[in-house]
Amino acid sequence: MSVELPFAPVDTIIRRNAGELRVSADAAEELARRIQRHGAELAAGAAERATADGRKTLMAEDFEVEQVVDKDDLTLPVAPVDRIARLDIDDDYRVSMNARIALADILEDYANNVATAAAILARHADRRTVKAEDIVTYFELFE
């Protein structure tokens, strides 16, 4: 499966949470893959909720968000998040702009949590670089 999400914004999220630590390219790539997988799963659930309401358009409320943030406040770009949302749903579904923004916000929070934990793991290993193994270890410990 190709990764729809560019690595640069994911790298930015990791760096924002890593403080003085460096970030390997592999860490950004691994987190981008995990974000994509999680986003596709969330969109599939949102599609089920939309279908239950008799709709073929995913709305922000299908992602169970109460308020949609401003798109300009996000680090993750909305266009790749739209492609992620469509990975595991039928082509008949549409994804509203508010749903895309809501999903991007959810995925950015997810990435921030993982990045913070990965930085802690890197420090615990007495390293100065967050690596892909820190991302993998986080998921081994908490999923």
Notes on the protein architecture:
The radius of gyration is 16 Å and the shape is elongated. The mean pLDDT is 96. The chain has helices spanning 7-18, 25-52, 78-85, 97-124, 132-142, and strands at 22-23, 57-58, 94-95, 129-130. The chain has a two-stranded parallel ribbon with strand order 1-4. A two-stranded parallel sheet has the order 2-3. The protein is mainly alpha-helical and 143 residues long. It is built from 5 helices and 4 strands; from the N terminus they run H-E-H-E-H-E-H-E-H. The longest helix is centred in the first third of the chain and has 28 residues, at 25-52.
How many H/I helices?
5
Spans where pLDDT lies below 50 across 5 or more residues:
none
Care to count the β-strands? Answer: 4
**Average of per-residue pLDDT values:** 96
Shape: elongated
- Which sheet architecture does the biggest sheet show? 2 strands, parallel
Query: What proportion strand?
Result: 5-15%
Distance between the termini: 21 Å
**Helix/sheet category:** mainly alpha
Widest sheet: strand order?
1-4
Q: Spell out the helices and strands N to C.
A: HEHEHEHEH
Taking all Cα atoms into account, the compactness measure Rg is: 16 Å
Percent range of helical residues: 55-70%
